[in-house]
Automatic annotation (TrEMBL):
Record InterPro entries: Aldolase_TIM, ArsR-like_HTH, GTPase_Obg, rSAM, rSAM_sf, WH-like_DNA-bd_sf, WH_DNA-bd_sf
Taxonomic path: Bacteria, Pseudomonadati, Thermodesulfobacteriota, Desulfobulbia, Desulfobulbales
Cofactor: [4Fe-4S] cluster
Protein name in UniProt: Radical SAM protein
Gene Ontology molecular function, alphabetical: 4 iron, 4 sulfur cluster binding; catalytic activity; metal ion binding
One of the GO biological process terms: regulation of DNA-templated transcription
Entry keyword set: 4Fe-4S, Iron, Iron-sulfur, Metal-binding, S-adenosyl-L-methionine
Ranges of residues in domain Radical SAM core: 7-242
Gene3D superfamilies found in the cross-reference section: Aldolase class I (3.20.20.70), Winged helix-like DNA-binding domain superfamily/Winged helix DNA-binding domain (1.10.10.10)
Cleavable signal peptide: none
Keyword 4Fe-4S among record annotations: yes
Amino acid sequence: MKYTFGPVNSRRLGLSLGIDLLAEKTCSYNCIYCEIGVSPVTTCDRKEYTPTAEIIAEIDETIKNQSASKPIDIFTITGNGEPTLHSGLGKIIHHIKERTDKPVAVLTNGSLFYRADVRKDLFEADIVIPSLDAARESSFRKINRPAACNRLSEIIDGLVLFSREFSGKIWLEILIVKGINNTPEDITALQQAVARIKPDMVQLNTVARPPLEKYAMPVSQEELKRIAQELPGKVEIIADFSRKKKEKNRIANESEILHILQRRPCTASDICEALNLDTDSTTNALLHLEKSEKVIQTEHQGKKYYSAP
Ligand code: SF4
């Protein structure tokens, strides 16, 4: 499968079928914490980066072949970069809504919400999860390293407009990087932006997986709790995935593991959790994949991460 992956257990969304609209990393940002690598170019150009018809055909095939033991709870449009850059986004969401009664979520950096066509394309989604890491221009440039076409004031105005127009849920994700967007001035600016956007919920996060830049360091759980208290409305700190205890009983399958690692680096326990796999067979599969040089191992914050080069 080229555009779909899973279903995987998503910490936020349940058993989710991922839909990746971009074959190669294409983004309007080049975030210092990005876990999928450097953006070769940053762009605001909306176009059909991959054929919409091919994506729709693959979604149909996945729906037809979905296993009764692993039914899809939610369709999650994400991307090897920024999915709203794909001009077929609205058509793809509309197609899923016509074919199934399952919700559709979209993970986006929110940078193109100033465009009416992008906001309209998202109207049929059920949950939209945009990011807003900084509400001060200098911090925005440091953390997200946006394309020249992005202006922070336009982005925040776009999020405000979308929040007024959209009838589904908006979960605004804010990722805090130590020493970059956690100063008192940053938190005050974020408070004001969140108060204007009025999302259904703020999801507060920090750097967990190996970031693009080594200097992108996480803040402590205590600091996230303090920031959460300072933001208006409902705020959730995204729980540490690896701490949840669940039964894992499926035997690991190497190609399934590779499929996930081609998208982002994971620890062995991330993989077990996402795919509901047994720990021992996952460890063995990773050892074998490492020996055959299909995956590499790196260490970050004392944890071993695997990725597919
Ligand atoms: S917006 Fe997302 S995909 Fe784009 S650079 Fe930032 S983290 Fe990576």
